[in-house]
Specification:
The chain has helices at about 35-45, 80-95, 115-125, 150-160, 165-175, 195-205, and strands at about 10-15, 30, 35, 50-55, 70, 100-105, 130-135, 140-150, 175-180. β7 and β8 form a beta hairpin. The chain is globular, with a radius of gyration of 16 Å. α2 packs antiparallel against α4 (about 150-160). With about 210 residues, the protein is α/β, with parallel strands linked by helices. The protein is built from 6 helices and 9 strands. The strands form 2 sheets. A 7-stranded mixed beta sheet has the order 5-4-1-6-8-7-9, sandwiched between helices. A two-stranded antiparallel sheet has the order 2-3.
Length: about 210
């Protein structure tokens, strides 16, 4: 359960990609510091949310050990992060009708901030926008975002009818706020896309054991 006050929010861990830059396979199951990227992402997000789900494709049973509901894309063809976000919005509407918001994170980001969800809510509230995403330094992180369940039908239309795949193209229609975090002592949105990134993550852990 969450430990900071904000509207009821479901967390979705996005693991539906093909991990080509990592050489294929299940990137979230790669380990740093003796623990998988997925386990670290779950530990970061779980205290901030009113429940978690995992978005993945293929054999969903391979993630059964997490104990989380595993939800596949409802749009065919590996349509990217927006498809995973849509799957989460649909799942929330059907299974958790009291929840109006979904926060999404990639499963290859092991150092996410402990105030991520409250920061995203604060940013969209201050800006008067329905959407929010994270930024560190000059880099925005569209996949680390806050999404209202009420926009599920519009997102489905954009994906299925308009064939929109880029997050920025869709969010620009509705307005999106940016919640900013510092880059020091390390980027909290560091993500391990390539095998060499795992070594960099190990170096961060060696210098900052509590990361």
């Amino acid at each position: 359960m969450k430990d900071v006050a904000h509207p009821p929010t479901l967390g979705v861990l996005l693991a539906g990609g093909l991990a080509r830059r990592m050489g294929g396979g299940d990137k979230p199951m790669r380990a740093i510091g003796g623990r998988t990227l997925l386990d670290r992402a779950i530990d970061r997000l779980a205290p901030q949310c009113d429940g978690l789900i995992l978005n993945a494709n293929g054999d969903l049973e391979r993630f059964a050990a997490t104990g989380l509901p595993v939800v596949a894309d409802t749009v065919e063809g590996f349509a990217g992060p927006l498809a995973g976000i849509l799957a989460a919005l649909d799942w929330a509407r059907e299974n958790r009708p009291g929840i109006g918001w979904v926060v999404s994170i990639p499963t290859d980001s092991p150092f996410l901030p402990a105030d991520l969800v409250v920061g995203l809510h604060a940013a969209r509230h201050a800006a008067g926008t329905p959407l929010a995403c994270a930024r560190s330094g000059d880099q925005t992180h569209p996949v680390v975002g806050l999404w209202p369940v009420a926009l599920a039908a519009e997102l489905r239309h954009a994906l299925v009818v308009e064939d929109i795949r880029k997050i920025d193209r869709w969010t620009a229609r509705h307005g999106i706020a940016e919640a900013v975090w510092p880059l020091e002592p390390f980027d909290p949105f560091f993500n391990a896309n390539r095998p060499e990134d795992l070594g960099e993550a190990e170096a961060i852990l060696a210098q900052y054991p509590g990361a």
